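Researcher: Structure for this, please.
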Amino acid sequence: MKKARQKSTNADAVQRAVHHHQKGELLQAEAIYREVLRVEPKNADALHLLGMIAHQVGKNEAAIELIEKAIAVNRAVPIYHSNAGVVYHTLNRLDKAIACYRRALSLNSNDHMALTNLGTALKDQGKLEEAIACHQRALSLKPDYYLAHTNLGSVLQDQGKIEDAIVCYQHALSINPDDHLAHFNLSVIHLLKGNLKEGWEGFKYRFLRQDISRYFNPKYLNLFQPQWDGSAIKGRTILLYAEQGFGDTIQFIRYVPMVLQKCDKIIVTCQEELISLMQRINGIHDVVAHGQKLPDFDFHCPLLNLPSIFNTTLETVPATITYINTDTQKVLKWRERLQSDSARLKIGLCWAGNPTHKNDRNRSISLSMFSMLGDMENITFYSLQKGKAAEQAKNPPKGMSLVDFTDDLNDFSDTAALIENLDLIISVDTAIVHLSGALGKPVWTLLPFMPDWRWLLDRDDTPWYPTMRLFRQSSTRDWSHVIISVKDALAHIERLGPVCKP
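Model: Predicted structure, token format:
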């Protein structure tokens, strides 16, 4: 009888916590869940919901541990499995996420949310037709489920069916005008199509995406100063902060001279690996690593707001050929190190990006894909690859002369100095192409079938980097034709004589 009363009391407590949870009062909800677990350590609902709070505040490893404990207590609750899938998906552990979604559906085949979550995970694995089937099944169960319309649009967009994707996003917004993901995806399509004004307007919804790093989100930076809107604030200091990847920081730091015309002083906070590079940009007063104590400032602005603030169009992209300066001493040291290389072409090579990037499986390739370049004479390739994929440099394709000095590249200023001593850079869509373009070096960028928004559609050049040439897939995940095009272009350079910019 006493146990029954205690369980009833705990159930009431969980309901009180849920009330706080739904209102966004996470600290109050967490305190109650923990008290319930102190009395009843195997209360599955409290374990599951405490795990969801951990997920909401970005502690996903702790979240999955708690939700898995709830599942161990009671495997028959579909939502436990479904939410475990959400957390695994956030951690980019797609196989685990898909298994969880499928277990949830085995318990409730009509769970429209689990279906569209499964579809999204399958999309991220590149299984686009299976993903479409999941979203369509979800919509057959619940036609007004706006997220399924949005997620279906996202798959169609990956297939290059842009107009069909737009229809899906518009349908989602007709059901829920506040669907931030549909707004954001539509903005990306505008940017891809070169409609930059419309694109920047919707791009503000990026901060509402669940997959954006909390570290780069102004909501979590505790910035009490006002956000800068582009007004002239002479005598004041602006904090510009990186909000996404290395490449984004390098690309949009180009706006510093324009910002400086509006204020007195600029401070930049960015990824630690970029500090030495950012310190060499004219107009920046101070550079601080993310998470470190900031100097005093009056206004703040995320870097990717700057194109909108300055009304950037395709015709007005600030495209100064060299806007990042290299360390002269480092450049000279690399020049001495490479002077014994008598090859006609010294080419930097990068084949993979950060594996945690959501679209990495579409943009990254293996070094072996460049095997058909191995028989080209009088070319030395220099690895610019960092991270786990750098290990592939130990076994280059047959015939390829590949030099690997990457152990000596400690930050981006080191990489920039090496790049300055090369004739050409060939890379998939990583920070390396942005760095090369910012340095004004000839760079060939290899793009997936559906590229990132900044590369636009159906062109082999880009207004962002005058020395860049784009090589695009003609169909999804078909890199062979891209490499053939690269080989043909290299042969053309050899016939021309001296190395020229593309």
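Researcher: Any notable elements?
Model: The two ends are 82 Å apart (CA to CA). Confidence is low (pLDDT under 50) at residues 496-502.
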